[in-house]
Amino acid sequence: MRILLGVPGGIAAYKAVELARLAVKAGHSVRVIQTPASLRFVGRASFAAITGAPVLASEFEDDPAKGAWPGEEPGSHTPISHLALIERADVYVVAPATANTLSRLASGSADDLVSTSALAATCPVVLAPAMNGLMWANPATVENVLTLKDRGFHVLEPEEGPLASHGEAGKGRLVEPDVILHSVEMLGAQTRDLDGVAVVVTAGGTREPIDGVRFIGNRSSGRMGFAVAEAAQQRGALVTLIAANSSLPCPLGVELVEVGSAAQLAAATETAFQAADVLVMAAAVADFRPVAPVGGKIDKSAGVPSLQLEPVDDILKGLAAKKSSGQVLVGFAAEHGPSTQRARGKLEAKDLDMVVYNDISDGTIGFDSLDNQVTLITHKGERQLALASKQVIAGGIIDALVELRSSGS
């Protein structure tokens, strides 16, 4: 695996040397890039000796290896240094990711080789923050981390322990190099096992109009569906993401279709489903809608209106009745309480191949959270995915999808 290691200027930069050593020892091909500030903590010679490759610290300097990785012959021309390495990297890891680095990446800054490479990356990017505990807890840093997670960066949160300042301790200590390497290997091990497979993912929450201003809706942010779409695309799938009322950025390489109501979601999904190999119905679709929505705005001075509701057609059940041989259908079951019984009932009643169940009574997971904990239910049994980021959960869902396709279920 080709690992590009970006090293910003922080006291924990010395641990990046150990990370490089462990990665090379494990058989990976490693190239290192540094910020000018990092050279005050660790010199190029240390990384060059370990990796067997030149180290770059500026986007303006030529690469003596001409973009080649250890074990490869140099190219015939000198490439653009800030693009050549990231273009062929399997994983890009930034360690230690300082508070300043996180801020610049969150703002889309590209003023050194480390940040420029992150902006141009199409491979998974792992950020391993390290800083003073007060800096980590600062609202600006908290917001930057949330922004980066939303954009698909994999953040390995720092640990509790002694910090650089004498006598200080707290959360801000860089996770150990072997832990970083394990996370990098997990991401890099992803194969293109969905190459060319047409995957449709729905995400977000529908809004059913009461009048021209008000609506019935739900708390779904779309994070889980967006993460599934991104994970499928990274493994080679041709992904169509049908998003209802979500403000999240569309993952790179994914076709986005924006909808509002359940009726619009149904129409878009039915069209896309005709050419799909896999449908993942992660959207939170309304069960009921107003019978007679008002075109303008209801005047509150007229008193409290009477709101009559009607059921919304079950989109997934309707599509399951039309599915052809080889198509895989996945539904989501957000249930209030730790029981999979209702979720398994949906699997059978709707003739699905898999249901992803999560307990929304736990406020730390599910709607609008960054993490999730789910149970994958198929006709062959159940598999629990432990509490993790929604990106990690999405990877587990894709793993199960691949198994379903290979088994013909």
Describe, in plain words, how this protein is organized in 3D.
The protein has 409 residues and is α/β, with parallel strands linked by helices. It has 2 domains: 2-188, 3-Layer(aba) Sandwich (Rossmann fold); 198-407, Rossmann fold (3-Layer(aba) Sandwich), CATH 3.40.50. It contains 13 helices and 19 strands. It has helices at residues 13-25, 44-51, 81-88, 99-107, 113-120, 133-137, 139-150, 177-188, 223-234, 262-273, 315-320, 341-349, 390-407; strands at 2-7, 29-34, 91-97, 125-129, 154-155, 159-162, 169-173, 198-204, 208-209, 215-216, 238-244, 255-259, 278-281, 288-290, 309-311, 328-335, 354-359, 371-378, 381-389. It has an 8-stranded mixed sheet with strand order 12-11-8-13-16-17-18-19, sandwiched between helices. It has a 5-stranded parallel sheet with strand order 2-1-3-4-5, sandwiched between helices. The protein has a two-stranded antiparallel ribbon with strand order 6-7. The longest helix has 18 residues, at 390-407.
Regarding CATH, which class of the largest domain? Alpha Beta
Low-pLDDT regions = none
- SS element count, helices: 13
Arithmetic mean pLDDT: 90
For the report, how would you describe the main beta sheet?
8 strands, mixed
User: Which class of secondary structure composition applies to the elements?
Assistant: alpha/beta
Q: Give the overall silhouette.
A: globular
Supply the number of structural domains. 2
